[in-house]
Amino acid sequence: MIYLDYAAATPLDPAVLKAMQPYFTDKFYNPSATYAAAQSVHKDIEAARARVAHWLGARPTEVVFTAGGTEANNLAIRGVLNRYPWGNVVVSALEHESILTTAGQAHAELARRIAPVTPAGIVDVEALVKLIDENTVLVSVMYANNEVGTIQPIRAIAEKLAIIRKQRRASGNNNPLYFHTDAAQAAAYLDLHAARLGVDMLTLNAGKIYGPKQTGALFVASHVQLEAQIAGGGQERNLRSGTENVAGIIGLSHALDIVQNRRHQEAARLAQLQHLFIQLLEEHIPGVIINGSLKTRLPNNVHITIPGQDNERLIFALDELGVQCAAGSACSASDEEPSHVLRAMGISDTDAQSSLRFTMGVHTTEDEIRATVAHVKRCL
Length: 380
Known about the structure:
Blueprint: E1 2-3, H1 14-20, H2 36-56, E2 63-66, H3 69-83, E3 88-92, H4 97-104, E4 112-115, H5 125-130, E5 136-140, H6 154-171, E6 178-182, H7 194-197, E7 201-205, E8 216-220, H8 246-261, H9 263-284, E9 289-290, E10 301-305, H10 311-320, E11 323-324, H11 340-344, H12 349-352, E12 355-359, H13 366-379
Parallel strand pairs: 1-11, 3-4, 3-5, 5-6, 6-7
Antiparallel strand pairs: 2-8, 7-8, 9-10, 10-12
């Protein structure tokens, strides 16, 4: 099998599995219990929290563990809009469904405003800024897109928001203007330091970085006020109640350590494979179109349109030949509607349904890339 859908799921790193295993058996204790063995597990959670905080340039108390990226995004969006019910949120048209849908369900009238993107799949910063009014309390723009891999100008947006905050203070407007980014796809390849990015909240997803599924985290800067979405025993600073998923938390922290320590080397390796992949596609597949910016893009993503082809048929044909790829986000794979990301980029529904996403990872080799292009050519 040639697996080229790392944006959907990554295999668990053996070192991560090894770190997690004791918490399924010998260290099974509830970390909220008072006896010594349970408190030892609690200390392990806090050590894991500190490791995650290190990569974010944050305090450990600013890391909230969740059941995956979707819950973290929901906590960021709902948590702010429920705390400030008169407010609205500005999001980009490229966002994951867990952002777009959650923002769209807000009870405030016209609470969700969607910023357009360029044909290259980059958010239009000036257009985004124009959507912000005196009642905007949150802006959410993903760090890197899960479908076409484009890296968004997070720092540039943060600088614009800093100017607006200063103007608000001068005018007596006390509404906050928080900035959230979904970094689920970016965490294996890009800098996550919150202060350098200029963000107030940041989402992580262990299942995208060779860690366990259904485990994630939300960085919440100490000045951000959120309303909890899960009530109960008051775990995670009262922002996410429930007995902690200890094994998952340990796995997330180890996975983040691994991918961040090797990110420069791995990004360089994958960028070479990406260049080869695109070169071979353009040589052997007549009329192929590469979607998204080639300049500001994750090194593991190759998203193409083959005009006149049915992507669902191609996916099944490639699967029979041993190549596993996707048409877009796995979270919306059962939806027959064309990708909202491609629509936002101005790609027609017909071409969107002729598009394929290949995402590489730590196990991808040059031989696999060459074989994949040969299989695509064979299917056509």
